[in-house]
Amino acid sequence: MSKITLPVADWLDLRKPGSGIRGIFYAPPTIETARLRLRRLRMKDDRDLYAWTSDPEVARYVLWDAHRSLADTRTYIRYIRGLYRRGLPGSWGIEQKETGRVIGTIGIMAWSPDNRSIEIGYSLGRAWWGRGYAAEALQSLMDLMFREGKVNRIEAQCDVRNPASARVMEKCGMRREGILRERVFNKGEAVNVVLYAALAEDRKMTGDAERTEKD
Ligand SMILES: CC(C)(COP(=O)(O)OP(=O)(O)OC[C@H]1O[C@@H](n2cnc3c(N)ncnc32)[C@H](O)[C@@H]1OP(=O)(O)O)[C@@H](O)C(=O)NCCC(=O)NCCS
Prior knowledge:
Helix content: 25-40%
Low-confidence stretches: 1-7, 205-210
Largest sheet: 9 strands, mixed
Bound molecules: coenzyme A
Radius of gyration: 17 Å
CATH architecture of the domain at 12-154: 3-Layer(aba) Sandwich
Strand content: 25-35%
């Protein structure tokens, strides 16, 4: 089995924030898929976001609480925009091309430069579940992070009671690695999670994600 080796300079060159994974964090590129546009969040996305971030059903298995007011959503967007400015791992808005609405978010939940690995998380408004959107978004972000971010390992995890999310990971070629018992404490309870991961070397690129302009 061939091993992919990456020059360290390509991976983490702090003097050149415009390249590699740091470049992606500083200036998250817009990613086009067949039906979606993954792009930086804007303050004016607040109402689109609040329409579904306020839904407790969406928040049930994620590590954030349902937003109680538009102000919560605006605070969240401000926080994400601050991450872009500081070149830290952040989130993309998932815009439905057909309507221009931001129907979900997807982002880098954790980054381990030493291990060349990241963890991705995602959420969509309930009105858009079951149409393959989450898999389309995840696939495109994985492609970008393997190809341009030069990561070696991409992880995602979900609550064991969230099979739809596990299925999204499977559809994107991630392998189930096991159950981590009570790994997280969420909404007042210790929760078992399933860990999935894909590696650069076992990754089959789909090539359907196209990087476009910086937004
Ligand atoms: C999980 C979530 C992102 C899935 O988004 P989505 O756009 O509906 O996902 P997709 O349509 O790409 O795929 C969902 C898959 O799960 C399957 N699925 C849905 N409910 C299921 C269930 N109860 N049991 C098993 N599979 C289920 C669907 O059939 C589909 O698989 P298929 O294409 O093979 O038929 C979405 O439900 C969501 O945002 N939930 C709330 C936030 C959240 O839980 N985020 C994940 C945190 S880890």
